[in-house]
Design goal:
By secondary structure, the chain is mainly β. The chain has one domain: UDP N-Acetylglucosamine Acyltransferase, domain 1. It contains no helices and 17 strands. Strands 2, 3, 5, 6, 8, 10, 12, 14, 15 and 17 form a 10-stranded parallel β-sheet that branches. The chain has a 7-stranded parallel β-sheet with strand order 1-4-7-9-11-13-16, with no helix packed on it. The termini are far apart. The mean pLDDT is about 95.
């Protein structure tokens, strides 16, 4: 069972069992159970919902994540899009240049770039 633990900077909102590793920054909202890895950032316009695992040095700038796995060094900036039931490989960039709404399911390999 995931037990809550906060090791670094939380300026946003955390609800439920959430782990934030050293160097992690939460400016947005995180609803547990969730894991935020070392040196990862949850931006002011991001929401991390239940059952999300974000590995080290990833940046979730905007959008929502639910029931998903985000591997190392990934950048997600998708405005109002909600990513569910997804896997994002390491060193991946997923960005949207326009306001998107609704849900998306993605399985993205390592070193990928997706522009919506």
């Amino acid at each position: 069972m995931l037990m809550g633990r906060i090791e670094d900077d939380v300026r946003g909102e955390i609800v439920g069992r959430v782990v934030v590793e050293k160097g992690g920054v939460v400016e947005g909202k995180v609803y547990g159970s969730a894991y935020i890895g070392r040196d990862s950032i949850i931006g002011r316009n991001a929401v991390v919902e239940h059952h999300v695992f974000i590995e080290q040095s990833s940046h979730i700038i905007s959008g929502s994540l639910s029931r998903s796995l985000v591997l190392d060094n990934t950048i997600i900036d998708v405005n109002g899009l909600r990513i569910i039931d997804s896997i994002m490989g390491s060193h991946t960039v997923i960005k949207s240049s326009r306001e998107l709404r609704g849900d998306a399911k993605l399985i993205v390999s390592d070193h990928s770039q997706i522009y919506l």
